[in-house]
Amino acid sequence: MKPPASHLCLGVFSIAMIIACTPSTEKKEGEAPASKALQLTIERDHEIMNMLFPDGTDLEILGEGFEWTEGPLWLEEEGKLLFSDIPNNEVLQWSEGDGVSSYLKPAGYTGETPRGGESGSNGLLLSPDGELVLCQHGDRRMAKMLAPLDQPRSEFETIIGEYQGKRFNSPNDAVYDLLGNLYFTDPAYGLEKRMEDPKKELDFQGVYRYSSTEDELILLLDSISRPNGIAFLPGENALIIANSDPEKPVWYIYQVLEQGKTPGNGKVFYDASEAFKTDQGLPDGLKVTQNGIILASGPGGIWVFDAQGVPLGRLKVGDLISNVALDESGGYVYATANSRVIRIPLILPKEG
C-alpha cells in the first residue's frame, strides 16, 4: 500500500539464553511519495543486532524508478526476486546476472475498463505446488498464475474471490501453512476510493483462511481495522498480523487453534504508536526466519523483533519500506522501498 503524505529472532529458548547473557506506507490518492537518498542506519537495541548486522553492513540498490513497490518474493531455486509495482499493474524480476526486467503484466487487474488507484498485484507467494500466487488488488481475488515460473504469462485462475457472495475488498498479503491452507488479509487499499468506494461490498476488513482440499473459506477475524502483513511464528502455533491504521499502528499476535480454523487469544504484539509520531511508515509486510527472527516493515524502516515482541533494533534506510523477503541461504534481506528495491546482508545464527 502507498503512503499518505501526512504522515526475525532466535527461537524462544535461544533468544532467552542470549538475552540472559547479555505517516503510513499508504499514500493519498494520486500522490506519489518522492524518493529520497538512501542511507542505512542500524539501531542496535540488543547485542544480537551485532551478530545479524555487523559493523560495515550496508544496503545495495537493486532497482529504482518504479512507482510503488511491494510484495517481494525470493525464488530460491531460480535465484531471482519477484516484486510488484502496484500502480503499474506489473510484477518485475531481478537476478544477480540480469538485473531488473518485466516478469508479468498485467498482474493484478485484467479488466478492460481503465481504472486508477492501486490496481496491480500486492503480496506474492508460492503455493505448496510451487505455483505463483498473487494477491490481486484490481481483480479483488486470490489467484494463481497458470504458467510455469520460468515461462510467465498473464493467465490466472481464481483461488477464492468472495465471502458469502460478496467480493473481497482487495487481498493484500498472504501465507500458507504446512498443511496447504491459505491465510490472507483483505483491507481496502486496492479500491479506487478505498474505504469510501461505492464498490466496496463488505463492511469490514477481514483475515481469512481458505482450504482448497475442503473448499472452505473461514473468516478468522473482522476486528482489525486495516489488516496487512501476515506471517506465522515457527511451529505455526501463532500468527502475527500487521495493522496499517494510523489510529492504531500495531502488530497483533493470535494463537492458532483447530489446525488454523479458529484464532485463539489475541493481543498486541508490539504497539508502534510512539514511533509513528516521529517516523514515517506503518506496520506492513513482514517475514519470519526459520529460527524465529521477525523482520517487519513499520515506522522508520525494518523492525527486528524476538518471538516475544521485544524490539531488537531497526534498519532505517531514509525512505518508506513496504515489505521484505528473505534469502536465508544466501544471507540477504530484500526490501521494497518506495520506488526502489534494495537488499541488506543478514548473518543468521546457526541452529543447533
Description:
By secondary structure, this protein is mostly beta strands. It has a single domain (12-345), classed as Neuraminidase. The N and C termini lie far apart (38 Å). The model is unreliable at 4-32 (pLDDT under 50). It has helices at 12-21, 48-52, 273-276; strands spanning 41-44, 60-64, 69-75, 80-85, 90-95, 99-104, 121-126, 132-136, 141-145, 156-160, 162-163, 166-167, 174-176, 182-186, 206-211, 216-221, 227-232, 238-245, 248-257, 262-271, 286-288, 294-298, 301-305, 311-316, 323-327, 332-337, 340-345. It contains 3 helices and 27 strands.
List keywords for this structure.
3 helices, 352 residues, five-stranded antiparallel β-sheet, four-stranded antiparallel β-sheet, mainly beta, Neuraminidase, 5% helix
Q: What is the structure about, briefly put?
A:
The protein has a single domain (12-345), classed as TolB, C-terminal domain (Neuraminidase, 6 Propeller). The chain contains three helices and 27 strands. The protein has helices at residues 12-21, 48-52, 273-276, and strands at 41-44, 60-64, 69-75, 80-85, 90-95, 99-104, 121-126, 132-136, 141-145, 156-160, 162-163, 166-167, 174-176, 182-186, 206-211, 216-221, 227-232, 238-245, 248-257, 262-271, 286-288, 294-298, 301-305, 311-316, 323-327, 332-337, 340-345.
